[in-house]
Amino acid sequence: MAIKLENVGIAVRDIEATIAFFTDLGLTVLGRDTVSGEWTDTAVGLDGNHANIAMLQTPDGAGRLELFEYIHPEAIETEPTLPNEIGMHRVAFSVDDLDKALEIAARHGCHPLRGVATYGDVYKLTYVRGPSGILVMLAEELNNS
User: Starting from the edge strand earliest in sequence, which strands make up the sheet with 50-57, in order?
Assistant: First the structure.
């Protein structure tokens, strides 16, 4: 059986703010829609499922995020995920210039949780709290040439 990762889905409270954040970082919007009906109820497992969605893609075409802003049922607010919680908790991106990426994130009110770290001689990286509390790892590969 062949398998490939299609996308990562993230429920957000403000789809416009979240799209602005990720497109400023360099992702592009592939499409947007409003979905509802029996097929979404069945696929998602929620009665009366109705959501605004957007599909975003990384510039290399290899990574996609699907954003959901629920109209019905009402979105459930939870505490922001912590880095050590079990389950899905972050999305990670490689960037060419971490300082520039952090400037972009800051324009959206998103800042490193603690600071920028260096992982050996491989990456300079940090976690930021993005829109809707999404943990986003930004990593710049260190070039030791």
Answer: 8-11, 64-72, 50-57, 28-36
